[in-house]
Amino acid sequence: MAEELLELEDELENGDGSEELYEKINMVVDKGQEPIRIDKFLTARIEGATRNKVQIALDTEMVLVNDKPVKSNYKIRPLDRIVVFSNKNPESTEVLPEEIPLNIVYEDDDVMVIDKPAGMVVHPGCGNYTGTLVNGLSWYLGDKTQATTPAIPRFGLVHRIDKNTTGLLVVAKSEKAMTDLAKQFFDHTVHRRYMALVWGDFEEDEGTVVAHVGRHQRLRKIMDAYPDGEYGKEAITHYRVLERYNYVTLVECRLETGRTHQIRVHMQHIGHSLFNDDTYGGNRILKGTIFAKYKQFVENCFDILPRHALHAQQLGFIHPRTRQQMYFESPLPADMTQVLEKWRRYTTARPLQEEEEQ
User: Fold this and answer.
1) How many domains would you assign to the chain?
2) What is the pTM of this model?
3) Residue 69's CB: how many other CB atoms inside 10 A?
4) Does 274 lie in the same domain as 241?
5) What pLDDT was estimated at residue 163?
């Protein structure tokens, strides 16, 4: 027998989306275990595993024993530490290849880096079966028949970002690249920086939010923060103030973990909901004055930026084949740039505007 420690880990961009993309299974071989080939051992121990699936996992180095990949003929030993990475299809949705424009900022035989616009869902799911990034990738990477494919394509979505979050996303083009990148996300070595406009001012210039993130216990379609750690999964967000506009603040957020809606939930948790985040309370005036001109100003900003103000600006990882450090940066989208300019001008003119209304 083996002690099987099953860990499900959310590695979705700042988590984004409601389903986990990868499963990480940890096992410690029992002291009394007799030597047996690892492919036979895993087939017997993992629910739903087949000999073929296990063989593919071993061939693509998705199985580690004592932190090293092994072949299928490896014989397990007592107290071996086994880690199995397994990608999961959160939906069994058929995928329709669609000719959708993709802003590809980098591509080679192993990986693609895409700058995602606002409004594009990454992964097909309930209510979003077409028009997603996956539909566009299916077309771009070769299946242009317009016939539905029976399942989610096998290119590797190792993370994803929300429909209305803009910015950088890495996609693996091979099993080996997918495995390597998945490990980097699990090990929290991927460099990710987000720009967020949030309500309120900060007393400090930088800080860290540590609070578990899990599904809201009453409102099941959203997430919530649990500071005592009795529910949800560990989540850590580091933030740094970039610009202050009195009533709102531009911050840089660095993810140490990647949980669903992590930045949005953590900022709400500390009293700084993202500007115009209709899910977490930022789509109304939370800070500022009672003057009519101010209310109109904020409503104008909401019209320009009809989404939450979050942009995945920086992405860095080790290339799965060359082992070189890769680094990408995305410019702020036009809607966020316009709103920031409006806040800069308002902040400069604010004393005069408020004096006129008094």
Assistant:
1) 2
2) 0.79
3) 14
4) yes
5) 92
Distance, in Å, from the CA atom of 12 to the CA atom of 15, rounded to the nearest integer, reads: 3
Whether residue 79 is found in the same domain as residue 113: no
Residue in the structure block whose two tokens are 């004393």:
351
Mark which of 58, 87, 116 sits at the end of a domain: 87
CATH classification at residue 124: 3.30.2350.10
* 352: in domain: no
In this structure, how many other beta carbons lie within 10 angstroms of the beta carbon of residue 33? 16
Token reading at 211: 């609070």
Confidence grade of residue 207 (pLDDT, cut at 50, 70, 90): very high
Q: What is the pLDDT of residue 354?
A: 59
CA distance 248 to 342: 12
Q: What angle do CA 264, 310, 155 make, to 5 degrees?
A: 95
Distance of CA 280 to the CA centre of its chain: 17
pLDDT tens for 142-194 read 766 556 655 545 567 888 899 999 999 999 998 788 888 888 888 889 999 99
Tens digits of residue pLDDT in 287-334: 999 899 999 999 999 999 999 999 999 999 999 999 999 999 999 999
Same domain, 140 and 197: yes
User: Number of H helices and number of E strands within the chain?
Assistant: 7, 17
335 is catalytic: no
Helix 51-59 and helix 38-45, axial crossing angle in degrees, nearest 10? 130
Question: What range defines the domain where residue 129 resides?
Answer: 104-346
Residue 5 lies in a domain: no
Q: Which of 162, 180, 224, 335 is catalytic?
A: 162
Q: Which backbone phi and psi does 58 adopt, to 5 degrees?
A: -70, -40
